[in-house]
Amino acid sequence: MNKTKVAFICVHNSCRSQMAEALAKKFASDVFDSFSAGTETKPQINQDAVRLIKAHYGIDMEATQHSKLLTDLPPIDIVIKMGCNVVCPYLPSRHTEDWGLDDPTGKSDAEFLAIIAQIEEKVENLANLIRNNEL
């Protein structure tokens, strides 16, 4: 049986969606395959996100991830929108939800860590829903 494919999407695929992809690979890779993408790309992942994810989880996002477009993704089962505060990208799937997370770009480490904690909790909840065939 193929694992469920989950895409975390936002406009630039440089911060929240990248952190979600990294944390989902760490905490839910036994349940679903994780991807991230956006309608635009950035030359590098947000450096505060890179630094904090590396410091708190030991994950070097720059070694395994890069900013990608929606068209770079395989067919996706579940789309998670990060909370774009603009018209969010559209990607066909069997389920879509919006996590409504604030963009921590340019904000303090404390604000970044609060968003990271929310992402980790939401990833774990999503994994449980998929594991229990509720999604």
From TrEMBL:
Lineage: superkingdom? Bacteria
For whether the record's keyword set contains Cell cycle, the answer is no
Key words, A-Z:
Arsenical resistance
What SMART domains does UniProt report for this protein, alphabetically?
LMWPc
Q: Ranges for the Phosphotyrosine protein phosphatase I domain?
A: 4-129
**Name by which UniProt lists this protein:** Arsenate reductase ArsC
Q: Which organism is it from?
A: Acetobacterium wieringae
